Fold each of these.
Amino acid sequence: MTSVIATISLKGGVGKTTVTAGVAEFMAGEFGRRVLVVDLDSQINLTTMFLGDERWVKLNAAGHTLATVFADAVDQTSEFSLPDTLQRDVSTVSGVAGLDLIPSSLDLIEVTEELSAMRVRRDDTLAGVSALRDALELVVDQYDYVLIDCPPNMGPVTLNGLAMADGYIIPTIPDVLSTYGIPQVQTYIGRFGEEIGRRIVELGVVITKFKANSSVHKETVTRLRRDSTIQNVLPGYLGEANSIAAAAEFGSHASLRAKYGSRGQFDQFRELTRTIMVEADDKLPLRQLGT
Ligand SMILES: Nc1ncnc2c1ncn2[C@@H]1O[C@H](COP(=O)(O)OP(=O)(O)O)[C@@H](O)[C@H]1O
Ligand SMILES: [Mg+2]
């Protein structure tokens, strides 16, 4: 059974990509799960984190990225090749197997505009919304978890991610501005789920870049845990650490501990991953086949 989990937030820079990449690597490396990560952000950070620039440039030139999925939806073509686009065993940590990636493209910026125009032209807010799900349908069942890194907006590409998601997590830095839009995201996803007849379950808010010496961070975490409009702040969290920032750079590592940091960061990531898996197993419905 597969759980499809989207990482989402209206803010950039809150650690969405870092959480998605790290949790995926820990699911595969520490818990032996088969994981597919899908990079939906035109900033291609998740993609280059795992593949490096050179490999991405080649894939992109050949059209072997997600941009082709959406170009097909707009142009009514079928250029997308799943076998050529799916990148196997992309973890840069030695010994970590079972982590695959669907790469993104800078071309998504332009394609997203065309997708929006198509929705307006057809006067259909759901036009093209199942393009991603249809494109990946043949492989989804091969994984225990599919993690989808969304761009920081509710545009048509994000909706494609949500349309195939069973659940979602919202990473946030625990400060006033970063947490501001969380209720809006929850309401929006709830409404979108109703529109497409699919329950998209909130797994929880993930605290990122926590600074133990910041009173604002400590107060915000307390407030979030108390606030009834925020249903669930996950117990797992990530502290701010240079080693976690450095993990974004493409390069090989001897172990997850070496990559993410041995001063508590490895344990934080492992615990965060475990709590997300527990929430997913607990809350997500049996996979909603065909919906
Ligand atoms: N726990 C952390 N400690 C230190 N730096 C972090 C942490 N999480 C993320 N970062 C850094 O913060 C920046 C934004 O993170 P990123 O994951 O790209 O956010 P988003 O995907 O939400 O835009 C990146 O430079 C990343 O390396
Ligand atoms: Mg990102």
Amino acid sequence: MTEAQDSVPDAAALRARAAETHVVVVGGGVSGMVAALECAKVGMRVTLLEAAERLGGAIRTADVGGLTLDVGAESYATRGGSVRALIAELGLADRVVVPAGGRAWLAGIPGVGAAPMPAGGVLGIPENPFAPEVRRVIGWSGSWRAYLDRLRPVLTIGHEHSLGALVRSRMGRAVLERLVAPVVQGVYSAEPDTIDVDAAAPGLNAALTRVGSLSGAVAVLRGERDPALAPGSAVEGLVGGMRSLVDALHARLVGLGVDIRTGARVDGLSAAYGANDRPGWSVTVLEDAPENRDAAAPAIAADAVIVATEETVARALLAPAVPSLAPQPDHEPPVVDVVTLVLDTPALDAAPRGSGVLTVPGSHRAKALTHASAKWAWVGEAARAASAHRHVVRVSFGSQGEPPATEDLDEAAAIDLAREQAAQLLGVDLSARDVVAGHIERYAQSQPASVIGRAARVAAVRTQVHAVPGLAVVGAWIAGTGLAQVVPDARDEAERTRAQLLWG
Ligand SMILES: Cc1cc2nc3c(=O)[nH]c(=O)nc-3n(C[C@H](O)[C@H](O)[C@H](O)COP(=O)(O)OP(=O)(O)OC[C@H]3O[C@@H](n4cnc5c(N)ncnc54)[C@H](O)[C@@H]3O)c2cc1C
């Protein structure tokens, strides 16, 4: 046997090494749960610490008017296939469903009101500015202005980074404000001017240079791409809601012997000797839950820590080890309020606005609406089982730089505002009597990964964290918002941590 072969540990030695390795995951949202799963799978000892009383983070359900409903994430993008692969691994493949309920609508179009969102397009940028459904939204003058795109020369040196600037210069304000801004607000809770074209629509700039127009580039992208890869395209959900994913992950983690502690808020990390007298970490926990509370609880010793919280907490926890990550005092994550309404009215039986409504920014106090019982068959069936004309509608408020209109309202007033906005957005009368129940949930969102400069900033964070052995960071703030980004990133980072601990 050569010296090199001699130094490669065999499977039994690796298993033994894994079993004596302790990984602490901070944060029990989907990123933390996936990271915990990947480490536990190879036999590592894993402790998952979650500050709240329940796992799941932004995947949440609530009982609203007797229906168990998603009140946070309600779907996942199919692109990349990793969420679907996780779902299959957890035995949930037979619960996968696609949304129904027809196309979304646009509301708040000046001089028009509401109209169906034109089909096709990339981030709302139309392939054909004269298509009747596009013209209905932007008018003849908007279509002619957008057509200029085909006549104007393209930049020969460099390209435009800002999505807003690109669309404005090539197709004009009507396309930007009435088609692109509602989509960007709905997907990223941000303004198009702040969004990086290359991050939000990879390949668009290159196609523009090749074919000489933005609408042509959209056509190329839509034709060339697997629809499942197109930005903002195919999504799927789970019967029973995305909560099923959290419940299945939870069960799998329990099965693998992961020590799951809820009501356990991590307060600090410091370099120390780990579980086996190897360099590692000391994790300080404030036990919130009465059953876990133990004033004398010692700090937890870990060989590796995976931080899976939202950005502000992650920066504060990581800063002692990575000083450049000190919290950013001026960083205000966008706050989004989601109000779920259970309504009883025949006026919604025909789903007057399909699966939901996006708004032209500035036109309404709400940002978007989902007619959940029209969009998801399982929600519709559950609602109708309770009462013939029962419906579920989600109304969201707030975006980057604009606090939610519900910010200072109590729950009853927020529900009433959501009802009034839903009536406007759906184009029906909705009285307070039609509201069976309502529920409000507040989220601090991370800045979208597609914001200009963000990709470089988070890449720098990753590099700095990777330079510290036994430390990893996962979650939407670093991977990008959306389960299709969060899940594969958490898996990859856990694999990196595993390899470092077992082979490093
Ligand atoms: C309203 C809303 C709707 C969405 N809809 C969709 C959708 O339809 N499709 C989609 O793909 N994505 C959607 N998303 C995005 C998606 O939900 C998130 O990208 C994803 O769930 C983030 O997971 P995470 O693990 O990174 O973070 P989180 O889910 O935020 O989890 C972080 C966890 O860390 C915990 N924590 C914080 N501080 C501490 C501490 N000190 N100690 C211990 N634990 C701590 C928190 O309590 C939380 O549970 C939506 C997001 C929101 C807010």
